[in-house]
Please model this.
Amino acid sequence: MPKITINGKELEFKNGMTVLQACELADVEIPRFCYHEKLSIAGNCRMCLVEMEKSPKPIASCAMPAAEGMNIKTNTKLVEKARKGVMEFLLANHPLDCPVCDQGGECDLQDQSLYYGFDKSRFNENKRTVRDKYMGPLIKTQMTRCIHCTRCIRFATEVAGVPEIGAIGRGENMEITTYLEKSMESELSANVIDLCPVGALTSKPYAFEARPWELKKTESIDVMDAVGSNIRIDTYGWEVKRILPRLNNEINEEWISDKTRYACDGLLKQRLDEPFIRKNGKLIKSNWDEALDLISNKIKNIRPEKMAGHVGDLVSLESIFSFKNFLTDLKIENFDFREREMYLNSSDKINYLFNSSIQGIEESDLILLVGCNPRHEATMVNARIRKVYANRKIPVYSIGNPGDLTYEYNIIGENTDVLRDIIKGQNSFSKKLLSSKKPIIIIGETALELKSGAYIFEELKEFLRENNLINDNWNAFNILAKNASTVGAIDLKFFNIKENNNFIFFDKLKNNEFELIYLLGSDNLRFNKNDTFVIYQGSHGDRGAENADVILPSPAYTEQNGLYINLEGRVQECRKASYPPGNSLEDWKIFNLILDKLEKELKNKNYQKIKELTLNNIVNFSKIDSISKNKITINKKKECDFIHEKIEIKKIDYYFSNSIARASKTMSDCRAIVSKQFKNGTTI
Amino acid sequence: MKPKKVYEKQPDSFKFSDKNLEIAENILKKYPKERKKSAVMPLLYLVQRQNENWIPLAAMKYIAKYLSIPYISVYEVATFYSMYNLSPVGKYFVQVCTTSPCLLRGANKIVDICKKNISSNQSQVTKNKLCSWTEVECLGACVNAPMMQINESYYEDLDEQDANKIIKSLLEDKPLKSGSYRNRKNTAPENLNNLNGGKIA
Model:
């Protein structure tokens, strides 16, 4: 490996590194504004100047490739003078409004001016001012503060795939703008707020809410989709003030989706804080004793076959586990986690996971989407696909039309026939698929919800296995789960499936066979209520609570510890960041209280034990935060019926997909704008 | 330099004429296929020539589509360079050089004449749409200072009277000839004897 000398210390570096990266290897911190690891190099802020031997001028280390035998100095007088000069130019036009700027306390310019800034300004001219731009309900702009690092432009173009931000004009008159003064059409747009090294782009919902040093920071996991993005929850007292991404190269890199970031204001609204009981058609505030008495009386008087349980989209593993124990204690067999009739085969762990892994997408050479819209179903997976597409131009194909995915793709067909032809080798695409070394086939829930869902699943898997595309080194077979609780619920066997019938729960639900339904945070299950007694246990007064006869308040995902399995099968911990409002109780405690009323024996009396038992029950679990290798077993092939159908990918109400997002004002603002643009036809 | 203003009354659409489409195709041939976006500058210039010396937004969209690049990239280029006009100019577009050498030789007097005869503000077209003027940075004809550029011709070695005459001729739509107004040949020295003792023309 080539060698470079940095401040007299010789070290080895990898070919292709820049001087700045080599300096980081040597633990030398270089100040920078425009350089960002995940974006292309611009080299326009000049803050990273270092001295290079034999060079008459200081060099911009972020843009200079490191080379054998270079001698770099970062602590000389020349370097300091150069950086001070750059800083003085940056501050010449930067307003002195730190006391009223939301970036204050976490501002790169503020921090670096501490080391390189002058105590007074020599700039006697008028400072320039720039008109603020409208960038939608999420991003607040103060363009006078902009130092033209162009990170936001590069992010929008390279990562988000919506080249809508640009720099117009030149020199002193340069301005960053979106050309139509409209919000960015991307689910990743708010990441530019984190990228902005100054206070030019700040968070609109968080404006003037708190200072960073006042906030309590909790490292946690996102539950808005099944990706399990790593997040940091910032709380001030009880309130969750904001959610920021945490670096995890295996999942979300440095980005999170707008829903992950901004649905948090929904945690303050529509909250269930006390038990409610329906009396004369109205939900009346009540107390735990009364509610528990009513529930236990009902349970005593109804036969177990007539009772059912359903878990919702945001429920943690421990809650699913204790709910399942609770139901089996009561001899209830009818429970499910699916929102619609979706084919499920849980015999093998690889049957319900994203087996290629999110990072694995970067190795692939062909991607086929089958009935899924990753942009809305798993935004961070889509960002990763776009990254590979942008870097290597790998071909992406789709069966079914998912709409704009921020990259180009070919639609092979919109019917199930195409899939059958591919499997039988009658479509020219089969050849392409089989000649690629590391293809990725992503099956969406839309495909599994079809009548021929079983056919698509079983035949496609068999086809891939026969052609050795499912092996120990590469697994091309992927299921794209939509909800945070899905994989966990399958792992804990929270469903009722028999060999010949995949939808026992749904059949009984349709026939109105249940006299009591217990909903655990379940808002998206559609059924006719009629005379059914509905218990809703959850955090938000939403669709599920609307129909309920008894409401039991429990904490949201930021208010209790919980495990989640993401779509790759990675078990992650979601940590308690604040307290639930009012008299909410943790899910497992509520189950224990009901069992206690029914005079049943309590098996699990503390959280630690439940967590331990839950982890024991996860199929093939090795370690938290990692994916375990799953064995590939060969099952007998099931014969499934083929039905000619159109694969229609339903438009997901992205900003309104769960109860927290539906309670959030920010999300409804975003939704209003998207639907308005859709109506006006201004979407491009 | 002040930032350029985008004209309010924009045409709805723009299309290259058949002749210009051919030229555009030829321009594209100069660049490798995967780098055809490099053609954005000559194409913008082509638009400007076709569209009475200014570039409407519709044309930027047209070019973006033509080169399959984002609209904002074309917009960035068009706003960056001062020689792309984003709002209409007169039939005779007067650009007065006001950089130091011209200024020392009295360019501000020419500016005053423009202000008096054409319009008090820069980039404001006269009522008969014949003329508009603007100050520009060095046009590279310092030897013949002061000077101005009218459309694609240089008018050099001016004084107040000449400038007045030229501007008036423009307003009457009968432009005077371009070149030096002291009968100099290009940038040749004046009032100097040649080696044989004779005068240099």
